Amino acid sequence: MKPEITPPRSACAPEFALRLSPTPRGARLARLLAAHQLKDWGLTGAAAEAAELVVAEPANNAARHGRVPGRDFELRMERRAGHVRGELSDARAERRPSPARESDGGGYGLLLVAALATAWGVQHRTVGKTVRATVPCR
């Protein structure tokens, strides 16, 4: 049998997906790759910065709170007319994120996501969860 080869997607493709290790390095890489993809899509300025932050916070949470040994987390981004949607999926369904109500030295990242995104939420998966957020491109 001949193996099937999938050609790489164009930088202009409206979707981007990648699996990363649930480590601080993986979280940093998610942010850097998201910034690179946004630039390839032609997004700059405040909209790109907001989308980058909205990806970075759930990526950091996936590395800190969603880690399961031997399981990666997935970064997925879509560009559609007028918005970018970022999704971070990890293997820990029982560790659902929620914005901090009181200071405990952290936990404000999801408040930032809520402020920058037009919509965000958490969806259960067969294994784990997905945190989604939509950011306007204007």
Shape call: globular
> Rg from C-alpha positions?
15 Å
For the termini, the CA-CA separation is: 48 Å
Q: Give the oligomer, counting copies of the same chain as homo and different chains as hetero.
A: single chain
Write a structural description.
It is a single chain. The protein is an alpha+beta fold and 138 residues long. The protein has helices at residues 24-40, 45-64, 109-116; strands at 15-20, 73-80, 83-90, 119-124, 129-136. A 5-stranded antiparallel beta sheet has the order 1-2-3-5-4, with helices on one face.
Keywords:
138 residues, disordered N terminus, 3 helices, 26% strand, alpha+beta, single chain, 5-stranded antiparallel sheet
Give a summary of the structure in a few sentences.
This protein is of the alpha+beta class. It has helices at 24-40, 45-64, 109-116, and strands at 15-20, 73-80, 83-90, 119-124, 129-136.
Please describe the topology of this protein.
Elements: E1 15-20, H1 24-40, H2 45-64, E2 73-80, E3 83-90, H3 109-116, E4 119-124, E5 129-136
Antiparallel strand pairs: 1-2, 2-3, 3-5, 4-5
